[in-house]
Amino acid sequence: MNDDRVLRQGLDELMLECSEEQLEQLHTYYERMVEVNKVMNLTAITEYEEVCVKHWLDSLCLVKALLPKELNNPLRVIDVGTGAGFPGVPLKIFFPQWKITLLDSLAKRINFLEQLTKELGLSDVTCVHGRAEELGLKPEYREQYDLCVSRAVTRMASLTELCLPLVAVNGAMIAYKSADSDKEIDEAVKAVQVMGGVIENREKFIVPCSDYGRSLVVVRKVRPTDRKYPRGGGKPMKAPVI
Ligand code: SAM
């Protein structure tokens, strides 16, 4: 039996209501993740309360960076480098009206997410195996999203080149960074500008029920990304625009 007191306290802090169905979905997510984690590397965090804080609540902190009227829209969302589904799956559970694409370059993780999202009964979820820099060149993905989220994938300058080409003009990319990432974010100013964005906000806070400082970097897309980007051959990572 899972003890949900910490989870409920954190959700209250984020002003998110949780139905019995959503709680059930989180429990199933936890069980499947821990089970599959025995044979496949999905997460280093497996203790229930820690998962609640470091995976669910951390993912859901996105509510601190967007207005309720934005969050409640039927947004087209992509999670770049979703891994075991963070932050995309907890967000989809709490914002079921979103149409979400979960993208990862590791096929095994995408297979896990395909089965999981089916079992959770989540609709409007597309699990895609591929690299963001390749999808960013394809018309069916390029500039097709209102929101691109990403946690723990690569440094901000590289991440901007992976994510911003996927975002529609007037949409946003939100990067989950640690609170002490100011230097890394300052270093990304040029990449943000070159990819057609502006840094709109750095929302800093402590993740509920933890002492972990988080910074959500909101990059607004203000004009289309130049056709030259994203570059292939690992260049966004090896030679970021800085
Ligand atoms: N976002 C998840 C989280 O916060 O728990 C996973 C983070 S994990 C450290 C990074 C993930 O990004 C891995 O699953 C990796 O396969 C994926 N990844 C790395 N580079 C990528 C790329 N260029 N395109 C798509 N996925 C990528």
Please tell me about this protein's structure:
This protein is α/β, with parallel strands linked by helices. It has eleven helices and seven strands. It has helices at residues 5-13, 20-37, 48-60, 68-71, 88-94, 107-119, 132-135, 156-163, 182-187, 189-194, 235-238; strands at residues 76-80, 99-104, 125-129, 145-151, 167-178, 197-206, 213-221. Strands 3-2-1-4-5-7-6 form a seven-stranded mixed sheet, with helices on both faces. Helix 1 (5-13) runs parallel beside helix 3 (48-60) and helix 3 crosses helix 5 (88-94). The longest helix has 18 residues, at 20-37. The N and C termini lie far apart (49 Å). The site of S-adenosylmethionine has 18 residues, from strand 2 and helix 7.
Order of helices and strands: HHHHEHEHEHEHEHHEEH
Mean pLDDT across all residues, rounded? 98
Low-confidence stretches: none
Strand content: 15-25%
List the ions, cofactors and other small molecules found in this model: S-adenosylmethionine
Q: Describe the biggest sheet?
A: 7 strands, mixed
Q: Fill in the CATH topology.
A: Rossmann fold
CATH architecture: 3-Layer(aba) Sandwich
Q: Count of helical segments? A: 11
Number of strands: 7
Shape: globular
User: What gyration radius follows from the Cα positions, in whole Å?
Assistant: 17 Å
Span between termini: 49 Å
CATH H-tier superfamily: Vaccinia Virus protein VP39
- Helicity range of the residues? 25-40%
Count up the domains.
1
Q: Could you give the order of strands across the largest sheet?
A: 3-2-1-4-5-7-6
Structural class: alpha/beta
CATH class, anyone?
Alpha Beta
